[in-house]
Every structure is written in C-alpha cells, then in structure tokens.
Amino acid sequence: MAGMLVTGGAGFIGGNFVHYWVKHHPEDRIVVLDALTYAGNASTVAGVAQAELIVGDIRNTALVERLLRERDIATIVHFAAESHVDRSISGPDPFIETNILGTNSLLKAARSVWLDEGSGRPHRFHHISTDEVYGSLGPEEPAFAEDNQYQPNSPYSASKAASDHLVRAYHHTYGLDVVTSNCSNNYGPYQYPEKLIPLFLLNALHGRPLPIYGDGMNVRDWLHVEDHCRGIEACLARGVTGETYNIGGGAELPNMAVIDTICAEVDRAFAEDAGLATRFPDAPAAKGEATATLKAFVEDRKGHDRRYAIDETKAREELGYAPMHIFEDGLRQTLSWYLANEDWWHTLLRR
Question: Which Pfam families does the record associate with it (predicted)?
Fold first, then answer.
C-alpha cells in the first residue's frame, strides 16, 4: 500500500494524528517529516512502529520529492506550521517562511512527482488550516462557514490564509487533488505548553500566575484533538477535491469559563489524589487553597480577535463528521494525561 507523508507529525495535532491513524489503519505506513523546532518533540511519535521520523524542513523541496518517490507516497497530510499568535506578533518572519514558503515547497514537490512525471496515480494533498483566517466575529454574528470572507488579523492567521490560497491555486491551476480543513482551537495530549490549556494546567501545578488577557471574555470554539483527527480522516475518505471543510468542536466558550473549569479540575484532582500534593507542593491545591487564587489579569494581546465560532454543517452533511467529546470530559482527560506524562512535558520546560 502507498505511504502517507505527515508534515509536522512530531508536533501537537500532527503527533496525535499519527497515533490515531496507526490505531485505526494499522496496515498503513507513515513518514513523519518534522524540523523538530521548539514545538516538535521526537518522543511524541517514538515507539510508533508504522511511523518513520525524518528530521527535515518542508522548505527543502528536493527532500520532499525524494521522499514521495522513494517511499511511494500518495497522500500528504500537511500540519507543519508556526502556530502561536503571540510569537507571530513579536516575530512574524518564521511564520512567513514556514507557513507560506514551506507550503509552496510541498505543493511544488507534489506537483512535480504526482503530476509532471506523468504517473497519473490517485493522490491527495490535505492541508490543515485554522478558523482564524476568517477574522473576528461579533457576539451575535453567525458562526464561520466555508464561504466566509477571509479577514486575517494577525501575522499568524495572515500566513495561514496565504497558504490556503496557494493550496486552492495549485488545484485550480495544475489539477492537484487537494482538500483543506479549517479547525477551531484544539486541546488534548502532547500540546506544547504555550497554548492556554496546557500553560494554565502546568502553571497551576507549579503555583505560577494564570495570565488572563484583557477581560477574559474572548470566545473560542474548543475542539478535542481526537475529534479533529476523526474529521481529517473523514476528509481523506470522503472529501471532494478542491473543497474546504470546517471542523469544529461544538464548545463555544469564553476564555474565563475555560480557565474556571481548569481551576476546578485541578482542585478536584488534588482532592482525589493525595499524592499530587507531594509531587507538586507549590500548587495552591496542595495546601488546600483554590487554584483560582492564581488568576491574574494582564494587558490584552495586540489585535486580539474577540470571537471565533465554527459552523460545521458542511462537514456533518457531506462527510458524516460530528464531534464526540464533551468539553468538560475532554478537559478532564487532558489533565489526567499531563499528570500521567510528566516526563514528556518536563523536558520541554527545561528547554
């Protein structure tokens, strides 16, 4: 069977996808291409027998072409991206280089091997994007649908919007078989602790402040990463070439509600497991105090989008997709994973 190339497969969503795919498709071979920048971690996919990790840059077009030929790859699932908005504000260049130039490099390689060399074989380039390309919603505006106008407001979302347009152009100009999915905020295992949920979980365990931007009422739709993987699987199996599908989690919540849930779950975990107080003595919960005492309001982020929401009607009706995780249950599972995998994240905190 032809192989699959997963770019950024040692990162958060890509790594979860690798684990999900080999569990549900054990006969498939996966090549993971990852530059192992700060957010990539080889241990995320270590021990996955069906996955071969190649350390390399997606901007190396010759390397990608060689992998497509030598590994007999007919599917690319493209996760590799710089994705943290705060980092894009302080330094946009890596986002332009990876998200735009890197995506173009992959598309060039796919076009060269799959189209120009005349094999005519079936193929699929699946591009992972974000709801942030659509901009910001008002409190009463309908959720983002696939035909919403693009209005990116940060260097990160602008770079992802550009990559989306490149993918579309390679389909309409060259006939490359592409599908794009735009997802909402992911959470779950293996997430680098700069994003809200893992950052606040680990800060709570170490008694560090929980920095809340502005008034804490910015709204996001929260998508468990396993549901996202299921959505990508549906796109690969039933997605129509050239189409875009929005993948949401059905959990539109203000940041403050998410933070309060994190605090409550940490308090619950310490109450149920006395050993946590020994492992994390600096946590307020270790001293019988409320984790919520760590909440601290800070200056809002520049250009902070007020609300995102996903209308997943198209994915539900055309692909049969629907999220399965209830947010509170998914968050509890995520906390349990971080508590059980301290070796994984402790290494990241020492970088």
Answer: GDP_Man_Dehyd (PF16363)
pTM of the model: 0.96
Q: Of the residues 132, 164, 252, 312, which is catalytic?
A: 132
State the catalytic residue, choosing from 134, 156, 192, 321: 156
Q: Which residues of 8-43 are buried (b: 16+ CB within 10 A; e: fewer)?
A: bbbbbbbbbbbbbbbeeeeeebbbbbbbeeebbbee
In a domain, 83, yes or no: yes
Provide the domain limits for residue 21. 3-189+224-251+305-325
Q: What is the pLDDT of residues 89-121, one digit of tens each?
A: 999 999 999 999 999 999 999 999 999 987 667
For this structure, is 174 an active site residue? no
What CATH number is attached to the domain comprising 9? 3.40.50.720
Give residue-wise pLDDT tens across range 306-341: 999 999 999 999 999 999 999 999 999 999 999 999
Q: How far apart are CA 133 and CA 143, in angstroms?
A: 13
Domain count, the chain: 1
Please indicate whether residue 187 is annotated as part of the active site: no
Question: Does residue 299 lie within any of the structural domains?
Answer: no
Residue 337 placed within a domain:
no
Is 308 among the residues known to form the active site? no
Asked if residue 100 lies in contact with residue 159, where contact means CB atoms within 8 angstroms, the answer is: yes
Residue 110 lies in a domain: yes
Which own/partner pairs from 55-61 qualify as long-range (CB within 8 Å, at least 24 positions apart)? Answer: 57/102, 58/7, 58/33, 58/98, 58/102, 58/103, 58/105, 58/106, 59/97, 59/98, 59/101, 59/102, 59/105, 60/105, 61/105, 61/106, 61/108, 61/109
Q: 34, 57, 131, 312: which is the annotated catalytic residue?
A: 131
The answer on pLDDT for 51 being more than 60 is yes
